[in-house]
């Protein structure tokens, strides 16, 4: 499933794709990833649903202009505009990592309604970030000037650490590719520099207002965001369900694709 369409929004180009027929399901990726994570799942679901993939501005195949904000607030505005462009009313939303905070803000702050929300190993509530995030935020300009081969090695090691089982070379290459080259390298450090936990604090204060069905999925071995965060998130969202997926890390898509697909299909039914 390829992102063959482009949506012009606030000077940005958002890459997106659609397939299938039936109830609408929108996938949201996180950082430092892209819609590539969700492509096999969207393709499989397209037999029964109309599935939508998109790359957030600053990510994947979407535009990466240096002057454009790529924080949670900007991405939530982009998602709301994209849903309006698609003409969707109460789609199912499935979000991973950063996409969790974006989809929650779109619902809680911008008032966009969903039929349901599935949160998979999400960044949603504070605290968040890692020592690497802190280092990049302190030195964004310096790291953007690294020799390309050193930068690529850093990004590969960083993304590889999100998997509990380890990523195959071709999967790792697909995840790293958007962050290479003259445009991709500075964009990688820019999206970390723009990371603002204030938006997570605002989300946390509003979670008690969530009135839609929510299911939380988490890799039991997530080294980036421990499962204790999932349990806390469940307590904050009224009626939320939680399942842990064994032997899976933050990139549950690669560590346990069959259990993840089973959970998604059962939830959408």
UniProtKB/TrEMBL annotation:
A UniProt-annotated Pfam family: Abhydrolase_6
Ranges in coiled-coil conformation: none
GO terms of molecular function: hydrolase activity
Segments traversing the membrane: none
Domain of life where this protein originates: Bacteria
Keyword annotations from UniProtKB, A to Z: Hydrolase
AB hydrolase-1 domain sequence ranges: 25-259
UniProt cross-references to PANTHER family, sorted A to Z: HYDROLASE ALPHA/BETA FOLD FAMILY, PIMELOYL-[ACYL-CARRIER PROTEIN] METHYL ESTER ESTERASE
Protein name according to UniProt: Alpha/beta hydrolase
């Amino acid at each position: 499933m390829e992102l063959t369409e482009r949506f012009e929004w606030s000077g940005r180009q958002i890459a997106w794709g659609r397939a299938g027929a039936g109830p609408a399901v929108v996938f949201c990726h996180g950082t430092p990833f892209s819609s590539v994570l969700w492509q096999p799942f969207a393709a499989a679901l397209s037999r029964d649903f109309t599935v939508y993939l998109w790359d957030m501005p600053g990510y994947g195949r979407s535009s990466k202009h240096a002057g454009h904000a790529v924080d949670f607030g900007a991405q939530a505005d982009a998602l709301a505009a994209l849903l309006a462009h698609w003409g969707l009313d109460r789609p199912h939303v499935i979000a991973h990592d950063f996409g969790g905070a974006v989809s929650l803000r779109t619902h809680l702050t911008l008032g966009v309604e969903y039929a349901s929300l599935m949160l998979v190993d999400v960044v949603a509530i504070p605290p968040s970030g890692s020592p690497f995030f802190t280092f990049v935020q302190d030195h964004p300009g310096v790291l953007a000037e690294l020799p390309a081969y050193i930068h690529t090695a850093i990004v590969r090691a960083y993304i590889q650490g999100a998997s509990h089982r380890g990523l195959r070379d071709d999967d790792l290459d697909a995840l790293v590719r958007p962050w290479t080259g003259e445009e991709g390298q500075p964009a990688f450090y820019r999206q970390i520099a723009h990371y603002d936990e204030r938006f997570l604090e605002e989300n946390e204060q509003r979670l008690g207002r969530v009135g839609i069905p929510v299911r939380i999925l988490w890799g039991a071995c997530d080294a980036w965001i421990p499962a204790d965060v999932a349990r806390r998130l469940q307590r904050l969202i009224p009626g939320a369900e939680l399942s842990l997926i064994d032997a899976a890390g933050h990139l549950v898509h690669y560590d346990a694709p069959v259990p993840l697909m089973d959970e998604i299909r059962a939830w959408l039914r």
